Amino acid sequence: MSRRRFLKNLSLAGAGLAINPLKSAAQPLNPDPSIKDNPLVISTWIHGMEANAGAWSVLESGGDALDAVQKGVAVTENDLNNRSVGLGGRPDRDGHVTLDACIMDHDSRCGSVAFLEDIIHPIDVARAVMEKTPHVMLVGEGAQKWALENGFSKATFEVPVPPVQKDYEEWLIKSEYKTGVNVENHDTIGMLALDASGRMAGACTTSGMAYKIRGRVGDSPIIGAGLFIDGDVGGATATGVGEAMIRTAGCASVVESMRRGASPEEACYDIVQRILKKHPGVNGMQVGFLAMNMQGEYGGYSVYNGFNYALRTKDRNEMVDAKYMRTWE
Ligand code: SD4
Prior knowledge:
Elements: H1 2-14, E1 40-44, H2 48-59, H3 65-77, E2 99-105, E3 110-116, H4 122-132, E4 137-139, H5 140-149, H6 162-174, E5 189-194, E6 200-206, E7 227-230, E8 234-240, H7 242-247, H8 250-259, H9 264-278, E9 287-293, E10 298-304, E11 308-312, E12 317-321, E13 323-326
Parallel strand pairs: 3-4, 10-13
Antiparallel strand pairs: 1-5, 1-11, 2-3, 2-6, 5-6, 7-8, 8-9, 9-10, 11-12
Helix pairs in contact: 2-3, 3-4, 8-9
The structure holds N-hydroxy-L-asparagine (SD4).
N-hydroxy-L-asparagine (SD4) is lined by residues 84, 181, 186-188, 206, 208-209, 218-220, 239-242.
């Protein structure tokens, strides 16, 4: 039934009813669900390979999915050469690097920080918010104050890091602002892991859009937008232009599609379709989703070609190309 629904959607898209037919390069959905094999971990983009290695060190010894995703994405946060995650990221238009992150587990426990400055590992603060406060989300000055009172410290190096500061000063000359995450400009890390005991967790962390308006927060720290886990169903995470994920409650929608019987790939396809239908303004902007169900099936789908994700199981350690709706010219 669900297969028929998706095939029907595809033919509607081809007939130009759902999206611009000239731009469409919709790829057919995988007829065979991916191999069931846990523990496993998937994460966005090429830096996911190293992040997965961090997560795998926890998963392979029978560790908990929550510890695995925290340790995994922290690897990317630590990489000062990454321009969209952690303190090596690009600043807002006023020159400040502001970080967003969240974490969620099997039992719907979650923690989040947004608009956080000068802390190397926002994902650790997000987990601490989850475990030590009655709240889900802390932002800005308050989040930093709470972090400093709870054992975190400020980075002792220069932020933005010098090459980023140099780029920023060049950018200031024109101050041309594009709310863009296109195929050349992306890097947020979203990660989903299923551990040997069948428990799932996810994490997402980013420095957000380069040169954003000061105070802008994207989807990545918003539970249901950039990340969502439901231990009865599965989980999803996202990368790309966060406004599109927030408007559609993107990752929560993916999980709800899986709850109704869609495979992870079908569920990601479904939300990409909805975003294209409701937000024609995503032209030229990348949006990609990853999903995994509790059976260990996984998949991804994006607006444009070029979105890939890192996969680690006991037999596989590789990049996988996500399916996509349109080709980037
Ligand atoms: C945001 N979703 O802040 C993030 C940006 C991103 O790859 O994913 N970049 O909107």
